[in-house]
Structures are given as structure tokens and as C-alpha cells.
Amino acid sequence: MAAGFLASFDRNIDVHSAGTYPASYVQPKAIEVMKEAGVDISQAFPKGVELYLKQPFDYVITVCDDANETCPVFTGSVRRRLHMGFYDPSFSTGTEEQKLAEFRRVRDQIRTRFEAFYRTELLPEMKSR
User: Fold this and answer.
1) 3-state secondary structure of 61
2) What is the pLDDT confidence band of residue 71, given thresholds at 50, 70 and 90?
3) Strand, coil or helix: 64
4) Of 74, 71, 86, 73, which is closest to residue 117 (Cα–Cα)?
């Protein structure tokens, strides 16, 4: 969801998403709640972080609660590493509506944090180039 939002803010930034333990598919509830927010992530697919370890990045941002501790070291050039931890809503329990509500709650947290990151960090940096 974070990559979907970040890419939707500005088509000129190159966004990649990967996980330390990627699932075999994108959670359907994530696709649904992102669609509600106007962002289509239906064509996304989970990738392992190993694909990107040697590549250079301006930012490497971990988003899952435990990803900051389990994320491997990037050997490519990384200018800045940030952690913005969010609860993984795929672990939520309850009725289908309660689970969907949890996906919406986390989606909204992600949007708020990444909009602020884009406005305060990325946008000024891009304008100064």
C-alpha cells in the first residue's frame, strides 16, 4: 500500500516494493481498500528484497513492524534509510468486515505518513535538483 500511495503522489519518482518474507500474492483486501482510495495496486506482485540489495537507492523505507529488525543490509548505495512501522493488517482477526476495517485503518495511516514524507522530504529535494 505504501508503494502504491508514493507512486500515486508523483509519477516522476521511481518506487519499488519488496518484502523480507513476501507472500505469494497481494492481499485482496489491500487491493480493495486501495481502490477505494483511488489507487490501483491490482497489477502489483510480491517480490523479495534480495532483488534490490545491490542497487543504489536514495531511500530505503521499511514499513512493517518487524521489517526494521529483519531487513537485510543493502550493499548498494543507500543515501537514507527510514523506518515507518505499521501493523500488518493481514494478521487481523474477526469478521470479514472487521478485517476490512483494519485494512482501511492501516491504509489511512500509511497515506498520512507517506503524504507528509513526500511533501517534506521528496518534493523539496526534487525541486532543488
Assistant:
1) strand
2) low
3) strand
4) 86
Query: Hunting for cell 500509511 — which residue is that?
Result: 110
State the cell numbers at 26.
497481494
3-33 confidence digits (pLDDT tens): 999 999 999 899 999 988 888 999 999 999 9
Q: Among the CATH numbers 3.30.450.180, 3.40.50.20, 3.60.15.10, 3.40.50.2300, which is that of 2-119?
A: 3.40.50.2300
- Categorize the per-residue pLDDT at 64 as very low, low, confident or very high, splitting at 50, 70 and 90: confident
Q: Please state the pTM of the whole predicted model.
A: 0.90
- Residue 86: what are its φ and ψ, rounded to 5°? -135, 150
